[in-house]
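Obj: model holo form, ligand = adenosine-5'-triphosphate.
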Amino acid sequence: MNTTALASMPLSPKQLLSCQESTARINVWEGSVRSGKTIASLLRWLLYVATSTVRGELVVVSRTRDSAARNVFAPLMDPDLFGPIAHQVQYTAGAPTATILGRTVWVLGSSDVRSENVLRGLTCAGAYVDEVTLLREDFFTQLLNRLWEGARLFGTTNPDNPAHWLKRRFLDRLHELPDWRTWKFVLDDNPVLSEERKAAIRRENTGLFYRRNVLGEWVAAEGAIFDMWDPARHVIGWADLPELVDLIAVGVDYGTTNATAALLLGLDVDRRLVLVDEWRYDAATAQQRLTDAQLSAGLRSWLDRPHTPYPTALRPRWVALDPAAASFRVQLQTDGLQGLVSAENDVTYGIRTMASLLGSERLMVSDRCAGFVTEAPGYSWDPKATEAGEDKPIKTADHSLDAGRYAITTTERLWRPAIDLRAVAA
Ligand SMILES: Nc1ncnc2c1ncn2[C@@H]1O[C@H](COP(=O)(O)OP(=O)(O)OP(=O)(O)O)[C@@H](O)[C@H]1O
Ligand SMILES: [Mg+2]
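Output (holo structure tokens):
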């Protein structure tokens, strides 16, 4: 079986070349967003699964099993891309294993601690890694250690911080690493991306994100995080709130000496996320600390009030609470608050998601979210973290931003399908 027999779609020259050349132990497709890296590498992965005789297990690694379902298995199972072979791939989101061409494949979420135990016990014959830079360095190192003689790894990534472990330890040292092979993709390497879509992607990414996501450069994060933030584009008057089809969640950031903030996230009829309403209690400005019981009462009475300028039967489905707020969580549970979950707290991933939503105007903010609107422009990258290879914000006034981030990232699986449909339509 060869590459062209597997593909039912036309490939760009770079895609074809990378499929043919990826015979190294470690093969990494890097570069711009939407540039065709995943499709080319998946094609190569299918070929590997179909033909490899190396003993051991096959694994697919992504940040979470949900992102594996979205980024890896959704395209693999799409007959428009992979023709009849798509029917020989089976995966149910969240499951520990998938079947590809009759072979069992482990699906590991790298942010899940249980995955490390699974990994430790594996002899790996082949690995597919979605978004390598999102893996922790020790997870990746462990994965390399598990690769059996003759085993291969295929991975994709967007560029990140130039001091990121993947760049410093590997990509900058390719001349010393004969078992590595990489390809750099740009928008033009995707054969189906229309000029309109390319123009939209260029428009949607500004500053740091333009250089990384469009140009494919490994550049340091400095200055304003949300440099695409523009009140004229992103803030809407609450009185003119668009019609909502869902109230997805409330994100809650908890502080005893700092502010406690709650942000309500909805989805509107135009498939945009909207931060609809905000509640804050700031112990410093109020010059009085509230007990957990008082904060809980304040939050719950706000939740019971109307959040839209028109009548609606919608109620927020989830409350995504600051995972560090153990005592407040107990209080809210005691008070019988429904839908309480611990918030997803991968800060860098959350920021990246919010920046991309803001850039493409798929996240709007009502002017009732005064804390969010005040904090957004001053949110900045921490130069010390940047030097150490990590993208991290300076811890300043970020309570409403954190609450918004909790609501958005914790519920990604609920809103992502609607938002992606909107992107396709654009
Ligand atoms: N050869 C091809 N034939 C048909 N569709 C393609 C081809 N290459 C890419 N696409 C489509 O283009 C889109 C982007 O491709 P892909 O997901 O591979 O990009 P990517 O580089 O992995 O992007 P990201 O960095 O955002 O993950 C996908 O929706 C995919 O279906
Ligand atoms: Mg991809």
